[in-house]
Amino acid sequence: MMSDLNIDMAMARIDGALELIAGVRAGVSGAILGQERVIDLTLATILAGGHGLLVGAPGLAKTRLVEAIGVAMNLDWGRVQFTPDLMPSDIIGAEVLDQASNGARRFRFLKGPIFKSLVMADEINRASPRTQSALLQAMQEGEVTVSGTTYDLPQPFHVLATQNPIEQEGTYPLPEAQLDRFLLQIDVPLPERETERQILLATTGKDQLSAKEALRPGELESLQEFVRIMPVGAKILDAVLDLVRSARPQSTTDPKLADLVAWGPGPRAGQALIKAAKARAFLRGRVSPTLDDVTLVARPALCHRMALTWRARADGLEIASLVDQLVDEALGPQ
């Protein structure tokens, strides 16, 4: 049995971790009004060690949110504006030829903006597929390879990409392989009337909103480790398996689903659900996820990992509504 001393040490660690994450939430909220769900899901993405795709119209403070998280979590962060003429070397970096005073020549690697702990890929779908693919190895492996040489990226390393769902002219849809690299797809809605009123007052006067630093170097890694070791009950694990497998047309027992879903989520979707559910529970001051946590991260974890058939789209079905239906069937109404 665990001794009283070990119990006291564990409780002290839990209390310390919860105090740190409360400080992070307060630090981010100092720069962002409203959007509590978006903030929670974005913080959950970082705490789970993943990457996030923020989807929303212009002017909804997506860039400001990334900056606020970088400040609150004390991360070295940078922004890359994706455009049609952006090249992979503009992101990763490139080798240049140096000549010494004695005439000797050698290649030297100049690091690109991806060598940051937090990278904002702004309007990622405006770049060509070739440039988008430059992020694949970085997001999955935490390293990049240039001219046969592999370079490790800073740790922690996170990508928060943005995408405008309104203006699609001159854009390139993200390939399924890259979408799967994002732990969560986070929809950023328009603010409620009262929140928008507060935004107008806060951003058009003398005083400006600003984020506050809440973590010291190394403390984010400690929080991420805490989330990783959080226990997951057998009931939660089975519920995640039931949900993910029910969304695959080749695995489901519902013959109607095969007519609706062109392709379903792979094993990485289940990993995303568990990681995000644990991080969300931690943000709520709990040390183990519940079915409610799984339910609330289901849409962000599954919608970008599924595709509807042409027939389903023609009938007006939306992927989010289908995910909600699958959640109700697999987990029960919450």
From TrEMBL:
SUPFAM superfamilies: P-loop containing nucleoside triphosphate hydrolases. The lineage of its organism: Bacteria, Pseudomonadati, Pseudomonadota, Alphaproteobacteria, Caulobacterales. PANTHER family: MAGNESIUM-CHELATASE SUBUNIT CHLD (PTHR42759:SF1), MOXR FAMILY PROTEIN (PTHR42759). CDD domains: AAA. Pfam families: AAA_3, AAA_lid_2. InterPro entries: AAA+_ATPase, ATPase_AAA-3, CbbQ/NirQ/NorQ/GpvN, ChlI/MoxR_AAA_lid, P-loop_NTPase. It comes from the Bacteria. Coiled coil: none annotated. This is ATPase. Residues 48-192 form the AAA+ ATPase domain.
